[in-house]
Amino acid sequence: RLRSCLDGERSASEMQACWRWLARVALVAHLACVHLALFRLWYASGLRNMFTRKENVHVEDLMLAMRIAEGDVGSDLKAVYGGGDGKPAPLLPVTNRLALLFMLRGRLELLEAWKLWLDPERDKRSPRISLYFHLADRGLAPDAAIDGEIAALSSLPGFRQVLPTVATGWCELVAAQVALLRAALADDSSTELFVFLPHDSVPFAPFGVTLATLMGPVLGAPDAAPRTRICPAGVRGLDVPFDCPHGIEPHWSRSLLLKHHQWMALNRAHASRLSDPVALRVAVAIFQELYLGEPLCSDEVLPLLALAIPEAILETERLRNATSRDVEPPHLIDLPLYAGATWGLGGFEAELRAMGAAQECILYAPWPGCHMRQKGGNKRARSPVVGGGLAPQERDVLIGELARQGVLFGRKLGMAGGSASDHMKLIVSATVAVGGGGVLPIAPHRLLPELDIATTATWLKWGLACVEAGVPLHFQVAGAIAVAALAGWGAVAGQGIGRKYMKLLFSVYVAVHCVVFFLSVALFAEYSLLEPFKRLGRVAKAEM
User: Fold this and answer.
1) Could you identify which of 58, 238, 432, 487 might form a hypothetical disulfide with 298, taking C-beta atoms 3.0 to 4.6 angstroms apart as the criterion?
2) Is 326 left (phi over 0), alpha (psi -120 to 50) or beta?
3) Confidence band of 321 (pLDDT split at 50, 70, 90)
């Protein structure tokens, strides 16, 4: 239509029709720019986050984590050590020692499978593995039950310590992570890698294969320290399925690209960083400024955020902390990892490698809609599906397939074959012919990745998010308002719509947006219309 309006000479009536068509295009541009300005103001400026319920911002967990990093035990309970007599047994130095950091509720659910898995280390004077446990229910469950569980844990080869219990909750595990890291780092100076595991986890590869895979040298750098493994949440429609609940939407803020799974492996340098009081304070300051009310847990972004802070920023904070404990959070763009993320997945992945971290998902969890074997999905699911929705035979086949892909652990799937001995037989047979020297392939970079699934709409949303990440918010809003005003004037001047109807359309259009914004708070349990008033002290701050 535009070409026909520009080609050759036209009669007055034809030119008038062309102007009206252009005026209608201007009207569409006007509405699009008004939409952009309103949405960016509501979502990106923090207006919606004002309504986030206090219990959903996960700040108390982070405050406790900082106190623990500074030396506060965070609990009245005593640690239980493997050496007896209330003292830790001395550890002899050993090359390539691995620490498993278990975050349990009341017990290790698949204890028998872990016993068989650890059996190669049972009679060794200096085991190559150390086990540390945090029991969330200790102090809550009956003493006899907890004492029995601690006795069972202490019988495992490599057992070192049950930590004093610190407060945890759903979506709030950073304090326990920091406590486990501090205990493991202080206990043994030769431990090189620290792996977080949940209460319902089970190994997918034999002990020797797991150790060789985790401790294997980086290609081209045989003397390098074992690499940190981070499992990013992924972007729906780009590298994980559209219905995957743990993924982020392509149009969401690029800061959410730092979202990751809690179950990661940290080398010693990164473990020290995550338990560093100054690094935690800076990371928490960034979290409070940018991530409150976002669709993620504190333990799904705080660890990577702490690792991503440049050392120069931490040195500046250490100097400031000599006289003041106030933290001035750096701009997110000052973090190379985020700066790389503004350019897309490639930049994000390159900066992760520069940090000494690899994208490897070494623990599988059957999230609904995140794997081709699962039918349907639920984007608002809050946890993986027990059993993965699979028949036992299908589950056993899946465990074998995952092991051959380099996935070393799993959760919520139970034991293959239904018993510890059958499980060990399956994982031995599944991995016996994979890789050279007992080393499995590099684990998948997402949980689980899907390629070539992006649509044009997905790429458009992703591209807009890239632009938004590179342009300050006030420029985005001001530019959208300016273009909206110019396009609106053109729509009226070109007789695409009358002035009276233009005012009516604008009013209705803004009102519809306000209704949508209202529903985005009212329909979701994470938000409360009363929250801003509570924070101002105008309403009693009762826990909802």
Assistant:
1) 58
2) beta
3) low
